[in-house]
């Protein structure tokens, strides 16, 4: 399959899991009706809680996670590949939880999962402060998965600021990079489009980035603007600031065309590190 329709579902998740899942499913079914067979959801799609204690209280073990069961059923219903941006998953023996992305196949089976590697521990100039590492255990492994549609490299939100991860995916054969996110409005306005377009251009991959939008518990604000970007850095679809979904046609031949025009993945040259 070289051509297919991909979609991003954009939502405003809050602290009611049942309601969050129901809303995400509405947009996913609408995207499927529009032809999408690869559907991506944002980071924290099932729950946006404020504060470490609330996050831990709303986490579940993987084999008992109601949101994972929900998305497995949805994938089978739609006979589509789902990239479930992230769920909060309990980790045995850990006080912290995993921020875990799942890829679910057409039969409803989990194909692979990826734990967010880079933790958003920052203090912004406007007074916003984040310490993800206090609540979330960072992952330690990249994940590349071959779905019916394409070879996909997985990342989550803040990972987008670490380009070596995406270059490694491209060199390993990735054709699509997914970056589900709950990007803050402050940093999103400044950097979201630029970072994602750069990752597409650097790797010659399509980038599919489903995003949270709007206001959330704890006065948190996210940027929205889910994006589907082609390997030349062209934005094919932009979700704007409101909940909904976007679609775009993915032509995997475009990956080969762009990499032939600018073969930067082959032009790497060894050098001595800075001393």
TrEMBL record:
It comes from the Bacteria. It holds the Pfam family CN_hydrolase. Gene3D superfamilies: Carbon-nitrogen hydrolase. Keywords: Hydrolase. The keyword Hydrolase applies. Residues 4-252 form the CN hydrolase domain. One of its GO terms (molecular function) is hydrolase activity, acting on carbon-nitrogen (but not peptide) bonds, in linear amides. Belongs to the carbon-nitrogen hydrolase superfamily. NIT1/NIT2 family. This is Amidohydrolase.
